[in-house]
Amino acid sequence: MRDDLETVFRDLRPYAFSIAYRMLGSVSDAEDIVQDAFLRLGQGTDEELRSPKAYVATVTTRLAIDALRVARTRRETYVGPWLPEPLLDDGASDVQLAAEISDSLSMAFLVVLETMSPLERAVFLLHDVFSFDYDEIAKVVGKEEANCRQVASRARRRVHDEKPRFEASRDQRDRLAGRFFAACQGRDMAGLVELLAADAVFYGDGGTKGSGVNRPIHGRDSIVGILLSWFGQGAGLGIVCDAVWINGQPGATFRDPDGRLINVIVLDIVDGSVQAVRSVINPDKLAHLGPLSPIGRRSKRQQWNADGPVS
Description:
Layout: H1 5-24, H2 27-42, H3 46-49, H4 52-75, H5 95-105, H6 107-113, H7 118-129, H8 134-141, H9 145-162, H10 170-185, H11 189-195, E1 196-205, E2 217-218, H12 220-237, E3 240-246, E4 249-255, E5 261-270, E6 273-280, H13 300-307
Parallel strand pairs: 1-6
Antiparallel strand pairs: 1-2, 3-4, 4-5, 5-6
């Protein structure tokens, strides 16, 4: 077994990352957790190594719980809406895979998970997403099986009450998203009004380093005004919009004329209309996607004003 650790790492790394990312909503933190988990796998006992997948899942979950407790303290003082670090989709067409991605990787889903305690998040994910039995979960989190059932039930009710239901097919959402971004680029007010739900919400995650809106914007008319202004400025700067799938949802990347990333926008499409627009422009959350543009970044003074001194 020890001679095959490289193979085990290659085979199980995506599985470990999928747990860590859902737990933390951070690509960089999830990568660190996965590296640590496999270092520990290499130091495990022969008994632990008999079931490497179970061992990796257990260690990854425990490390993620500890990391999430620290992260939650930081997020309590986060400037503006918090959104997870975006994952770009490879466009897989398999219906079941696309459905699974949309359901448990969507930004809407991860934002709901953010309202849970680390324990709730772990128990719910292990049972409802990764199909662990409650007796297995109890061993992972160090709680009684009955307690895990109660925790999962409570978390499941919260998800049911708050997470949007993406009923449209991938193709249908793709087409509507294409119309939405075309309307934005053409600064077509009537087209945007037609596509946005009356009670739509815009979330802009810039943190202290990215410019943008530091509070949710409610209502179709207000969102249309923001989008038309932004896309008008973008056209003057030569910004390029490319349709992509992000966290299992339709969206777009925005790059400057040199191909450097400015931000990503993700759409929640429910019942044939755009219910939420989520924009991530915080450079700390985009670094894993390639070179970043200086467009849309706050100056050092602006960062200081938003969140105290910046080193």
